Input
Amino acid sequence: MATGVFSVHAGRFLGRIFAPMQTIERQMAAARKRFYKNVSISQSNGMYEINLDRRKLKTPMSRLFSVPNEPIAIAVATEWEAQHKEIKMSHMHMTQLCNTAIDNPSKKTPQQIVDDILSFLETDTICYREESPVELAELEEREWEPLLDWVRQRYDIQLQSSTSIHGPTIPKATKSTLKKHLLHFNHWSLVGVTSLVETLKSVVLSLALMDKHLTVEKAVALARLETEFQIMRWGNVEWAHDMELTDLRARAAASALFIHYNSERVTTMEKAPSWSA
Amino acid sequence: MATSMERLRVLRGLIRELRHVHKKGPVKETIAYNYLMEQYRKHQVTDQRVCRAHQELQRNAETYLCLLKSTRLQQALHDEYYGRPERTTEETAKMLGFDLPQNPPDK
Output
C-alpha cells in the first residue's frame, strides 16, 4: 500500500522532471506541414506584412511580422512559397533575420550590438595567420593581405595580422573609428551585420562585402581559405564541405541583402522627359 | 561595369530559381518575378544617366541569385544525406567508395 502510494508520487515526480524534455524533443522532431496555399504581401502604414492565405504571419514572440521595405518582404514571401511539404525554418534566413530584428530576443541596445560585433575583431579570420605549412602561409598572405590593405585605406585605421595564438593587438583608435561607423546603421541593419560577422567570422570580410568590394562567393571563399586549402590536398567531402559552403553562402547573401535594403533609402531617379520629343 | 550579357545571365538565373520555388503555376504570376522585372525595366531607363544605381542593382541581383541557389542546393544535399532513415552498412561503405568484404567486386 505504502509502496504503491510512493510509486505514484515518484511517477508524478519523475513525470514532472522529464515531461518538459519530452515536449522539447517532440517539437524538434516534427517539422510543421505547409498549412497554407497562397502567400501574399499587404501594406499598412508604410510597413509590409506577409499573409499566409488569410492569416497574418507572426514572429516567434507572437508579434505581427511587419517589415519596413518591399524587397525584404518579397524575399520573405518567396521563402514561404519555397516550402513545399514541410516548413523548414532553418533554410529561411531572411525570415529569421526579420524575426530577430522585430523580436530583439536578446534585448540589446545598438551600442551593445556594435560592441559585440567589434569583439570579433580580436579573432578576425583575416588577421589570424598560420606559419606552417608554408604553402598555406603563402596562400593566406596572397589572398588576405590585399584585403587588409583595403580595409586600412577605406576606413583609415591601423590593423595588423598576427601569427601568435593571442592574435593581433587592436589599437583603441581602430575600434573607436569602426564603432562610429557601425553606429550609423539602424537596428535592423545591425541585426544583419551581426549575422554576417558570425557567418564569415570576420569583421574585415563583412565590411568588404557590405561595401560591395567583394561578392558573396569571394567573401565566403576567403572566410574558409584554410578549409579550401585542405580540400585541395585531401579532397572534398560533399556531405560536410559542400553543406557548409552552401550554408555559409546562403547566410552571407541573406545578411548582405538585409543590410543593404534596411540601410539605404532606395530612391529611383526617373529619366527626365526629353524636351526634344 | 557589368555588360548587358552579364545582366541577362543573372536575370535568367533568377527566373530559373524562381521556377524552382513556384513549382505549380506560371512564374509570371509571382510577386518576386513582377518586382524583378519592374526593377530591371526601371533601371534600363536610367541607363544613360546614373551608373551607381545600375551597378548596385546588378550586385543585389547577383547576391539574391546566390541566396536562392545556395538554399536550393543546401536543401538538396540535406535531403540526400540527412533527410532519410539510417543507411545500411552497405550503403555507407559505398558512400565512401568501399565494398564490404563478403562481396568483393570481382566475384
User: Anything to note?
Assistant: The domain at 107-263 of chain A is CATH 1.10.3580.10 (ATP12-like fold).
